[in-house]
Amino acid sequence: MTAEVGAAAQVLARISRHDLAAQEMLAFTWATPEGVRSGDVFAPRPYKHYDLQDAKIDLQATDKAGVFEITLSAQALALFVALEADQPGRFSNNAFALFPGYPATLRFTPTTPGVAPHFTIRDLHSATYGAA
């Protein structure tokens, strides 16, 4: 995949990893003119050194003609968010960072339509400290 950077692109900030305190990460988001939003995280230390907060991830799923549209929202930064379904199928996205105030919408297409799936949310906090 290739990303094209327009002529108007510019560096907005330069932040040294040494400017981040021991429990700080740099989280950044962006949006395209078409409204596509995404983000990423820079953690200068291994994740196991951070006191991760329970993100309290909320899941809303809607059946749209056999494809399940799932919107996730979080109250705190959630790292390595992954959804699982209790039946075979395909997710449009998985294993991503979820930012508070930036809901993520993905789709699940079951291999065999007809039965509504049950979804399980996993993230680094729940994998480290157990589910709330």
Q: Would you mind describing this structure in some detail?
A:
The chain has 132 residues and is mainly beta. The protein has a single domain, classed as Sandwich (Immunoglobulin-like). It contains one helix and nine strands, in the order E-E-E-E-E-E-E-E-E-H. Strands 3-4-8-6 form a four-stranded antiparallel β-sheet, with no helix packed on it. A three-stranded antiparallel β-sheet has the order 7-5-9. The protein is flat, with a radius of gyration of 17 Å.
The CATH topology is given as: Immunoglobulin-like
User: Span from first to last CA?
Assistant: 38 Å
* Number of DSSP-assigned strands: 9
Number of helices: 1
CATH C-level class is: Mainly Beta
- Strand order in the sheet with the most strands: 3-4-8-6
Report the structural category.
Answer: mainly beta
Helix percentage range? under 10%
What composes the largest sheet?
Answer: 4 strands, antiparallel
Order of helices and strands: EEEEEEEEEH
What gross morphology would you assign? flat
Q: How big is the Rg? A: 17 Å
